[in-house]
């Protein structure tokens, strides 16, 4: 019964890691990164919805006392 030849495994594994590293470097190098990132404000901006202007007696919320 022949034995499995594992003498080339180290070379294959090392070359695979090297190729993956090069591919990763090429992909990362294509991205544009901002030089001075500024933090965005986390405050919620109020959005005007069309139904907020048009309240009538029919559209009053039910939780208000009558």
UniProtKB/TrEMBL annotation:
**Transmembrane regions listed in the UniProt entry:** 6-24
What are its GO biological-process terms? Answer: proton motive force-driven ATP synthesis
Specify the species.
Hydropotes inermis
User: Under the cellular component aspect of Gene Ontology, which terms does the record hold?
Assistant: mitochondrial membrane; proton-transporting ATP synthase complex
Stated name of the protein:
ATP synthase complex subunit 8
Task: Give compartment(s).
Answer: Mitochondrion membrane
Q: What does the record give under GO molecular function? A: proton transmembrane transporter activity
One Pfam entry for this protein is: ATP-synt_8
């Amino acid at each position: 019964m022949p034995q499995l030849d594992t003498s080339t495994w180290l070379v294959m594994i090392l070359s695979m890691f090297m190729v993956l590293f090069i591919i990763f470097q090429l992909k990362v190098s294509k991205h544009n990164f901002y030089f001075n990132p500024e933090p965005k404000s986390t405050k919620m901006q109020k959005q005007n919805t069309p139904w907020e202007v048009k309240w009538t007696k029919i559209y009053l919320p039910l939780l208000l006392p009558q």
